[in-house]
Amino acid sequence: MSDTPVKQQSTAAFYGQAVASFAVAMTATAIGIYRLDANAWVRGFLAIAVLYLVTSAFTLAKVIRDRQEAGEIVSRVDQARMEELLTAHDPYRKTPDPRQQSR
């Protein structure tokens, strides 16, 4: 069985850029809703809708990530089983003749 290290998918710079982008988008949306020429109920509704959209996006991303990781784990287990079978198999081992065993 091979010991393959788990690779990190993203760099620190990419992570920082993603966090900064999220912060700018949320700040701009909050300022836009605050400065909107509408009554408080409309602004409140839009703020709740944005928060619901953000939490739904995070949940969807987590579900997709979890499903992908589960598929990778199953693939690794299947690969380990196949490697175990291949290492245990000796193509030069003499197998008993079934006709001689029945006599």
UniProtKB/TrEMBL annotation:
InterPro entries: YiaA-like, YiaAB. Keywords: Membrane, Transmembrane, Transmembrane helix. GO terms for cellular component: plasma membrane. Residues 14-66 form the YiaAB two helix domain. GO terms for biological process: DNA damage response. The keyword Transmembrane helix applies. It comes from the Bacteria. The chain crosses the membrane at residues 12-34, 40-61. PANTHER family: INNER MEMBRANE PROTEIN YIAA, INNER MEMBRANE PROTEIN YIAA-RELATED. This is YiaAB two helix domain-containing protein. It comes from Streptomyces bauhiniae.
